[in-house]
TrEMBL record:
Alphabetically ordered keywords of this record: Membrane, Transmembrane, Transmembrane helix
Annotated protein name in UniProt: Enterochelin esterase-like enzyme
Pfam families in the cross-refs: Esterase
Keyword Transmembrane included in the entry's annotation: yes
SUPFAM superfamilies assigned: alpha/beta-Hydrolases
Transmembrane feature ranges: 20-40, 61-81
Organism: Georgenia soli
Length: 361
């Protein structure tokens, strides 16, 4: 067990060059050097030239561009959105393909009747999927936060690399990953709800995406072999949708989740219906929820998120009080960012692995 824990710790504390302040610092120094050179040139030329002067404008723009890149580098070091050069390349090219030991493809799973369409779902199949035509696999369904996109799980979350390492170590069986379209676009927000007068996201997940995946991929079509996970608003969505549909999902992984969809949501997404708001607030309904089947829940939060820690701990306590299997983790020093989720993901996947079957199916 110590060796296994060591693996999880190593995976949790991987830091790519782009998640350190080094890149931003180097760019700041470069900007200072460029600005200094520009200043000396203008002194020699007899003072600062009008802004429209060609060479001066180009050089000033270069200094500004480097400063903007430096700021982006510092922000990325904080948020961990693009942890490695490989993640940066994937973000620039926006092309799916081979990822770690598996294959990533993007598909359209439209449902116009539910007002869900024009968004991609990313599906990752593990190494050996194509060469083992009779093998079936458990499925990990994932919901991103807002703003966000399904591909964030593979870029910022380092999901494929982490899954590959855990599978090789026997901590997680080979699994299919489905990073779902939330119906929100890059900057919108649906909280994974059936929005009044809008996208029916929860119904889309449970009545469209799951059947689609079961019919198009070699899955193990049973609740015991399905995991539902998410980050931030997606973590809330995973908890809420998962608890609404314990017949479909036996395991839930919620990173940085909320106990409710937010007070404004009652009006913006739920038509001002307070009963709907309470029915979609796990912090409200868990204490009286009747579990007809057991659910295993992993809850993860950053230690530097202030009151969020107590709120997520309260969710864990409420679930335990209802007799459910819960693992609650606080990631030391982490904020409400992708860095937090990337740090907690190895432990969450290992938790899921304990509840999924191992070996050929």
């Amino acid at each position: 067990m110590k060796a296994s824990s060591g693996l999880l710790d190593r995976l949790a504390h991987q830091h790519g060059l782009l998640t350190t302040p080094l890149v931003g610092t180097v760019l700041v120094l470069l900007a200072v050097a460029l600005a200094g050179a520009l200043y000396l040139r203008t002194r020699r030329a007899g003072g600062i030239r009008p802004l429209g002067t060609g060479r001066f404008t180009v050089r000033a723009a270069a200094v500004l561009a480097v400063l903007v890149l430096a700021a982006a580098g510092y922000v990325n070091a904080y948020a961990g959105y693009l942890p490695t050069a490989q993640a940066l390349a994937q973000a620039v090219t926006l092309t799916p393909g081979a990822t770690a030991g598996g294959q990533l493809t993007s598909v359209q799973i439209d449902a116009p009747a539910l007002r869900m369409g024009h968004g991609e779902t990313d599906i990752w199949t593990p190494a050996g999927y194509s060469s083992s035509p009779h093998r079936r696999y458990p499925v990990l369904y994932l919901i991103t936060g807002s703003p966000g996109a399904p591909a964030d799980w593979f870029r910022a979350g380092r999901l494929a690399e982490t899954l590959d390492a855990l599978t090789k170590a026997g901590r997680m069986p080979p699994a299919i990953v489905v990073a779902m379209n939330t119906g929100a676009g890059l900057v919108g927000d649906t909280e994974s709800l059936d929005v009044v007068g809008g996208p029916q996201v929860e119904t889309y997940y449970t009545h469209v995406v799951v059947p689609y995946v079961d019919s198009h991929y070699r899955t193990l079509p049973d609740r015991a072999d399905r995991v539902l996970g998410g980050i931030s608003s997606g973590g809330y969505g995973a908890l809420n949708v998962g608890l609404h549909h314990t017949d479909l999902f036996a395991t839930i992984l919620a990173f940085e989740p909320y106990g409710d969809p937010g007070p404004g949501t009652a009006y913006t997404l739920l038509g001002g219906d307070q009963a709907r708001f309470r029915a979609n607030s796990p912090s409200v309904y868990i204490p009286t929820m009747r579990f007809t089947v057991p659910v295993s829940v992993f809850l993860d939060v950053g230690g530097a998120t202030g009151p969020d820690v107590a709120q997520v701990r309260a969710l864990a306590d409420a679930l335990r009080a209802r007799g459910q299997d819960v693992l609650f983790r606080v990631e030391p020093g982490q904020h409400h960012t992708w860095s937090e989720t990337a740090a907690g993901l190895p432990y969450g996947l290992a938790f899921a692995g304990q509840h999924l079957g191992h070996g050929p199916r």
